[in-house]
């Protein structure tokens, strides 16, 4: 992976350069006359005030008094403005601070990581606890499994989700099955894989992938994808402490672009639970990771289409109430929340960046079709990447962006 | 991308200590001396010779010239011999039991008794062991017991290794510091590096325990072998790699497995102290592993031992090895280079063993194994509901719950009338009633 890693660095560098010229897949070109479409920077989903941050649903503070129960008391809590990589770093810093057995390792994590997620951690906690490994994904996974077998907390980084496949055997045949095959005698609950995922504007085939679907059948494993800094911190701390091996996929385009006020204390968000971001009664829009923001944009385009889109968005659907849900946990996924929602709305659109065939959307739509058969008023629609590799110069036409989500909503509402 | 050693971690060896630069100097990223002579090389010994094999006893159990026997007294020698003899006793009975269809699968350790028992004896009883599948002898040495062996092979209700979930010979016991065996080859090798690193970070065990990792020469062709040795050397940890080079990976002779000088030649490439040992000489194995273990602890680094032996038995009960090697070749090896016979002759030369004791031991071991076998044969399988437990720790996900309930519903519907299920249910403890009587399902 010699050249590959070199490319990774180039991608990283251009990400850094692109910092001020924030790439935004949700904008249409030219922008609408009104210019009020939300982007990641102006998203209403992001919690940019202390008060709203502290009222994040499901958030529980894990205070120093370990024997006491977790608390939801918000008074006196501080928040700090963080982007996603800073929130990820903050979570790991807390994990390392509170758990002497915790270690962080992977390719290039010691100097701070190619996405800055481990900045300063090796200086703060020492090279014995935050260290580089040789370039070997199967080795990183196996090493983490070994540490977790001894009851230690292993936080492993796979530099890009695109490079997790060399570790597939260790993850699926080993990590996922160890508790079961040993009759519960051994487990690797202390193991967490962090890995950047999803498209970034110019990642091409191997810096853009969303491999969550490949792990969805690996019973024994959990797969989690956050959408924002608060989510990243809370879900990562839960993942690190969950008694099962967890793959934590961080949408890399959100590392710098998504910014929230993040509580500085130790807090967790529940795994296996979806979150309803916008309540509605006419259609359920289910997604996770980066496309959450494309979906938000699509909802605005639906209710107030730009003049150029007006002929394509019938007036009859513009006032539709769309329920937007962030799935957050891909395995196990929150079947209850999605079923309840679809039973109310009668319509489901699933949006994910990975290709359609055997993607996570296939699993979810099959299950919802089974549970909500009599309530469904339209076929379950999937808006996904095409069943092709992710071609560099074609990305805008590959990803499920706001216009494709809008189209799916209109088609499903008018079925 | 060239990686410069300038930011090498503080606990790793500095490149600057390696060799001496010549007057011609060296490249900035290496201490390798620059030479003007064009010379390729292919051996790690510095000549065209192969890596030597360490041995202390000859084929008839006599110390060879210049050999220094490892410290051993009569008590230890007798224990070694008994355990070496126990393996073929167990193997013969379980092999035949498989042939009668009473267990589904088995793998013998014929011919590798000295490698397995000699190394087991050299390890501390709480060193963490990660094996491949032919290392049951380590568990026996540590007192796992014949009942547990039988329970695992039968997969019955008393199987502590894995509740009947894994194939026979996939043993495991945290009490005996023996990590549960899994079928995918070599996966345990990088895991061992992680186990050893955790040991290094565990107060009380950091200077006392190592991780010992066994694998065959075939498994060493997997990428995980490379990853494991690389990790244990660059992120120094007390990991002892023990390669059982028995000449075959199922039907593939080692000549088709590698072109270099075995497994041992690879160790130096990773900067790992390495030795090749006669795996049929239990005293050489004992001595080599003891010293390897000492180095692991003293240096806090990985060590590699390649034990040269010969797989006398078939690969497994699913294999007929005479399809790819001559029966006479195997018979010759059994006769000329039998690790048990070799050590027995040594024992006799010391006055520690005689024919009478041999008869008594063989009869006793056979009786013990048969007793355990007969006991295990009558034990039912565990509870059927264990099919669904231990997939996850903590709260059980909805899909597992629902699948359990679905099977329960199907059992209610078909359990009595579908013959394959009815027959099978009778073999389970409680005949599936643990599921059928569950109050939670609807």
Description:
- Chain A: It catalyses: N(6)-[(R)-lipoyl]-L-lysyl-[protein] + 3-methyl-2-oxobutanoate + H(+) = N(6)-[(R)-S(8)-2-methylpropanoyldihydrolipoyl]-L-lysyl-[protein] + CO2.
- The complex is a heterodimer of chains A (415) and B (442).
- A 7-stranded mixed β-sheet of chain A has the order 4-3-5-6-8-7-14, sandwiched between helices. In chain A, strands 11-13-12-15-16 form a 5-stranded mixed β-sheet, with helices on both faces.
- Chain A has 16 helices and 16 strands.
- In chain A, helix 3 (84-98) runs parallel beside helix 9 (229-241).
- The termini of chain A are far apart.
- With 415 residues, chain A is of the alpha/beta class.
- Chain B has helices at residues 74-99, 113-122, 136-141, 146-154, 188-200, 223-234, 282-299, 327-336, 339-349, 355-378, 398-414, 419-425, 433-436, and strands spanning 128-130, 211-216, 239-245, 248-249, 252-253, 273-278, 303-308.
- In chain B, the strands form 2 sheets. Chain B has a 5-stranded parallel β-sheet with strand order 1-2-3-7-6, with helices on both faces. A two-stranded antiparallel ribbon of chain B has the order 4-5.
- In chain B, 45% of the residues are buried.
- The longest helix of chain B has 26 residues, at 74-99.
- In chain B, 38% of the residues lie in helices and 7% in strands.
- The model of chain B is unreliable at 1-21 (pLDDT under 50).
- Classes of the chains: A alpha/beta (415), B alpha/beta (442).
- At the A-B interface, helix 1, helix 5, helix 6 and helix 7 of A face helix 5, helix 6 and helix 11 of B.
Proper CATH architecture of the largest domain in chain A: 3-Layer(aba) Sandwich
Note the gap between the termini of chain B.
Answer: 61 Å
Radius of gyration of chain B: 25 Å
Going by CATH, the homologous superfamily of the largest domain in chain B would be: Thiamin diphosphate (ThDP)-binding fold, Pyr/PP domains
What value does the Rg of chain A take, in angstroms? 21 Å
CATH architect. name of the largest domain in chain B: 3-Layer(aba) Sandwich
Mean pLDDT of chain A: 92
Number of DSSP E strands of chain A? 16
So what's the oligomer here? heterodimer
Coarse structural class of chain B: alpha/beta
Q: Report the sheet with the most strands of chain B, covering strand number, pairing sense and barrel closure.
A: 5 strands, parallel
Alpha-carbon distance between the termini of chain A? 48 Å
Q: List the total number of helices of chain B.
A: 13
Largest sheet of chain A: 7 strands, mixed
CATH C-level name of the largest domain in chain B: Alpha Beta
Instruction: Provide the CATH top-level class of the largest domain in chain A.
Output: Alpha Beta
Question: How many helix segments of chain A?
Answer: 16
């Amino acid at each position: 992976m010699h050249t590959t890693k070199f490319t990774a660095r180039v991608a990283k560098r251009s990400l850094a350069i692109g910092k001020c010229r924030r790439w935004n897949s949700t904008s249409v070109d030219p922008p609408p006359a009104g210019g009020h479409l939300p982007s990641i920077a102006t998203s209403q989903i992001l919690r940019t005030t202390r008060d709203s941050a502290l009222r994040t649903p499901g958030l529980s503070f894990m205070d120093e008094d370990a024997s006491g129960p977790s608390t939801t008391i918000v008074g006196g809590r501080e928040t700090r403005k963080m982007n996603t990589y800073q929130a990820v770093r903050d979570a790991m810093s807390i994990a390392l601070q509170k758990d002497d057995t915790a270690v962080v390792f992977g390719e290039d994590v010691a100097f701070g990581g190619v996405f800055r997620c481990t900045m300063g951690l090796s200086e703060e906690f020492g090279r014995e606890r935050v260290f580089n490994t040789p370039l070997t994904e199967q080795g990183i996974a196996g090493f983490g499994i070994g540490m977790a077998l001894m009851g230690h907390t292993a936080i492993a980084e796979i530099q890009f989700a695109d490079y997790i496949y060399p570790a597939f055997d260790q993850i699926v045949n080993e990590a996922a099955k160890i508790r079961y095959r040993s009759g519960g005698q051994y487990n690797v609950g202390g193991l967490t894989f962090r890995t950047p995922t999803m498209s970034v504007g110019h990642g091409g085939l191997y810096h853009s992938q969303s491999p969550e679907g490949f792990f969805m059948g690996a019973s024994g494993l959990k797969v989690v994808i956050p959408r924002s800094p608060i989510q990243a911190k809370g879900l990562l701390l839960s993942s690190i402490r969950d008694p099962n091996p967890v793959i934590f996929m961080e949408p890399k385009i959100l590392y710098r672009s998504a910014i929230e006020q993040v509580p500085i204390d130790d807090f967790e968000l529940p795994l296996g639970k979806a979150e309803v971001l916008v309540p509605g009664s006419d259609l359920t829009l289910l997604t996770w990771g980066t496309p959450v923001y494309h979906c938000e944009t699509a909802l605005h385009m639906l209710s107030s289409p730009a003049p150029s889109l007006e002929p394509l968005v019938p007036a009859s659907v513009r006032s539709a109430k769309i329920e937007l849900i962030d799935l957050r946990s891909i395995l196990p996924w929150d079947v209850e929340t999605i079923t309840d929602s679809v039973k109310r709305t009668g319509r489901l659109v699933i949006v994910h960046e990975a290709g359609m065939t055997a993607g996570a959307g296939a699993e979810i739509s099959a299950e919802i079709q089974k549970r909500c058969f009599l309530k469904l008023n339209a076929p379950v629609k999937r808006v996904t990447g095409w069943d092709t590799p992710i071609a560099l110069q074609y990305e805008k036409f590959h990803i499920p962006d706001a216009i494709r989500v809008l189209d799916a909503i209109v088609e499903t509402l008018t079925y | 991308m060239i990686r410069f050693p300038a930011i090498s971690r503080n606990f790793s060896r500095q490149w600057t200590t390696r060799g001496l630069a010549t007057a011609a100097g060296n490249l900035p990223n290496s201490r390798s001396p620059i030479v003007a002579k064009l010379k390729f090389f292919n051996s790690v010994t510095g000549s065209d010779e192969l890596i030597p094999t360490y041995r202390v006893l000859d084929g008839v159990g006599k110390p060879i010239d210049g050999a220094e026997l490892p410290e051993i007294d009569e008590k230890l020698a007798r224990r070694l011999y008994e355990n070496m003899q126990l393996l073929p006793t167990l193997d013969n009975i379980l092999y035949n039991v498989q042939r009668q269809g009473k267990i589904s699968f088995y793998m013998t350790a014929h011919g590798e008794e000295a490698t397995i028992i000699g190394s087991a004896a050299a390890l501390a009883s709480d060193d963490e062991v990660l094996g491949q599948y032919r290392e049951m002898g380590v568990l026996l040495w540590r007192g796992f017991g014949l009942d547990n062996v039988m329970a695992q092979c039968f997969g019955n209700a008393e199987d502590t290794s894995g509740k009947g979930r894994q194939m026979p010979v996939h043993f495991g016991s945290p009490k005996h510091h023996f990590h549960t065996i899994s079928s995918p080859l070599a996966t345990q090798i990088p895991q061992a590096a992680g186990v050893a690193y955790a040991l290094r970070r565990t107060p009380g065990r950091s200077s006392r325990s190592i991780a010992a990792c066994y694998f065959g020469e075939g498994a060493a062709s997997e990428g995980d072998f490379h990853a494991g040795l690389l990790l244990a050397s660059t992120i120094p940890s007390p990991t002892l790699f023990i390669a059982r080079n028995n000449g075959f990976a199922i039907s593939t002779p080692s000549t088709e497995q590698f072109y270099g000088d075995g497994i041992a030649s690879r160790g130096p490439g990773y900067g790992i102290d390495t030795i090749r040992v006669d795996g049929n000489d239990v005293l050489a194995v004992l001595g080599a592993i003891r010293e390897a273990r000492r180095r692991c602890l003293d240096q806090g680094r990985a060590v590699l031992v390649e034990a040269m032996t010969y797989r006398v038995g078939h690969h497994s009960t699913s294999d007929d090895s005479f399809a790819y090697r001559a029966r006479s070749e195997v018979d010759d090896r059994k006769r000329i280079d039998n690790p048990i016979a070799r050590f027995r002759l040594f024992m006799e030369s010391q006055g520690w063993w005689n024919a009478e004791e041999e008869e008594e031991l063989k009869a006793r071991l056979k009786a013990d194994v048969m007793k355990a076998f007969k006991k295990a044969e009558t034990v039912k399988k565990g509870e059927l509901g264990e099919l669904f437990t231990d997939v996850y720790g903590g709260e059980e996900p909805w899909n597992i719950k629902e699948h359990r309930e679905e099977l329960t519903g199907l059992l209610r519907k078909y359990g009595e009338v579908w013959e394959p299920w009815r027959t099978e249910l009778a073999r389970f403890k409680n005949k599936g009633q643990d599921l059928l009587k569950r109050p939670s399902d609807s």
